[in-house]
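[job 0412] stage=complex_fold ligand=C2E status=START
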Amino acid sequence: MINLTDSASVANKLQQVPDDVQLGTMMHAPFAVAWFDTQGHLLDCNHAFHVKANFDTTPSLVNSVHSIFPSINTMRWSQLLQELSEEPFIQSSEQILTPSGPSTTEITLRAISQNKNQHYIALFIGNILNDSKYQGIQTLQHEVLEAVAVGKPLNILMETICTRVEALAPEVVCTVLLVDNEGKVHPCSAPSMPDFFSVAIDNEPIGPQAGSCGTAAWRGEAVEVTDIANDPLWVNYKDLALSIGLLACWSNPIFTRDGRVVGTFALYYREKRGASDFHRQMVEACVHLCSLAIEHEESEKQIYHLAFHDPLTGLANRMLLRDRAMLALQQVKQRNNSLTVLFMDLDRFKTINDSLGHSLGDQLLKTVADRLRQQMKPADTIARLGGDEFIILLTETNASQARVIVERLLKNITTPIVMSGVEIAATASVGLSVAPDDDLDFENLLKNADVAMYKAKAAGRNTYQFFQKHMNDLVVDRITMESALRRAISERELEVYYQPQINIISNEIYGLEALVRWQHPERGLISPDTFIPLAEEMGLISEIDQWVIEEGCRQCVEWRKQGIDIKHLSVNLSAADFLNQNLLPTILQTLAKYQLATSCLTLEITEGLMLNSVPDTVALLDKMSEIGLGLAVDDFGTGYSSLSYIKQFPINELKVDQSFVKGIADDEGDRALAHAIIQMGAILNLTVVAEGVETAQQLEIIRNLGCPVVQGYHFCKPLPAEALNEWLQQSKFIQRA
Ligand code: C2E
Ligand code: MG
Ligand code: MG
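[job 0412] stage=complex_fold status=DONE, emitting structure tokens
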């Protein structure tokens, strides 16, 4: 079969038309062709010829070439045949009868010989070697592709397509609708439609009975309605179309390469009819162009988004944050209002990440991002600067307004998050700085908010701090802090403090918890809450913890020599310690070095570690328990409220978090929780240690709840070994040698 539908190559193809070509092969060709015998009698013609010549209105005259082309009388016909005998094809300008009356047209003739002696003449209307309409489609294609390439906006591109289509086919009204992810349509271009039409259909859902376009998008196939007034698909929209004289509509879905329907391309008619071959040809080209243009815009948007957003959470990145901040600061100067920069850092995120795995860590970050989005107005800038640091620009917000917002945010963040069946209560620490009071330079504001955030961490986390000028002097900026910490380890600036744990039933010392301190040469004592997270992040934690174990063991031997027997020495381990293959061998070597039994050492781990799905960790914990090391769950009740896992792990001690003890006298909820933990510990045969007991009242309540072991300032603060020595000598508690 000969494909003559590509008008660009018609000239070539025309010459290749074999002599025995059948008209049937050109029935749907995009050009008009008719078959005449050598006498000039019409034998047959294709659809396009019908439309152009419109001779079906005068059926009695159809049988001669003259009746269609008045200028081709018998003499002219003979003349043309004569010329054809010398040339493969000829072209000529002749008169034609069209539906709107006679006009002049180009024709192309080609002699076809069939059955040896029989000749037929193929007569093409139009100079098909240079058909302006088909060339029009090509020009349109080039123009639109060029416009796509130079990045013209989508609505301008669509406008160009529609206007060109309407110029090529004045009988149609052309529209492009976009379909969004929720299946709603949005007019993109409809240059000849009245505005009210576009307004009326904007945001309408696609569906099985949603006019031609909505249905085409719904079905994912072209929908041709030749009579809007009576077609059920138009029942809801027909009044709209009929009111502006549109009686038929043919709509084609626009697909992306991955098969999504992203729009529709429609031709409306002012009469009841279907699409012509030319319309089909044109629409085929245009739908393709629209799809290209839409995909191009999508990828542009994506590139823009990637350049200015954090890929994980979709929040703004540093670049966009800076841009927005600059704008906001300009307004602060011009309008004399304020801007608050909110710097939020999740507490112990590193631990969560290390213990639960990175994919759950990522999920947590996404959830936090979503929560921030929900809490803030759409116009607010929320950014993530990598890791677990989130920045929010509170425009036109002063300190007291920001206080209300940050309190609400912190409360919201703490709502437990369930991920893969694990419940996590995340908390965050926030620092805030306010322009113009603190500074008018964005980088400084950010730095100040960061400094304030570290103050919030040091104040116990899950809280916020506004920047104050003096913080800059006191607070450690991160960079110097990092190098200082490396030095601290090599220069032995670390020190171990010990806090007694008292068995309140037997009035004996149950054990001691080793708590590391950093004696900074200039800044004085730095709390582990400040530097442990840093050490975890920097990968220095194993080194510190192994040193604490060594130092603690050495000290225990020292006490033994003095007749003081410490039955349990508790040390804190971070989740990151468990990534270190040498953890257990080093512990065993240390115990052997000081000739201490494994039962002397209790390892305090956090709840998160036990949720680790890494089999290695589980195996390691089992091994530790088997060889007699104690395992305690620290800060119990704060992290992952699921208690069921406790049974599955070789734990022998639970440490009730200080936050419950703090509220135990006044808060019924805290008391109930503490009670539940203590009871559960008893049932599972675990030693329960209450942390942070500061007052006699708290002690009484804890005692009445049946908790056997207590640790807290009420008895003794963490002390250096020597000071603790004195305390031990004076204390009323029994220590057996
Ligand atoms: P933790 O293991 O829960 O330690 C208990 C914390 O509560 C200690 O804070 C202790 O000084 C404090 N505390 C004890 N009794 C009271 C009280 O009655 N009232 C109040 N308000 N606080 C009390 P510290 O020493 O600042 O340690 C903070 C955290 O740093 C520890 O919490 C532990 O998670 C971590 N940490 C400390 N030393 C080490 C270490 O050597 N290695 C690791 N990986 N983490 C450590
Ligand atoms: Mg501890
Ligand atoms: Mg604790």
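The pocket of magnesium ion (ligand 3) is lined by residues 634-635, 655, 691 (CB under 6 Å).
[job 0412] exit 0
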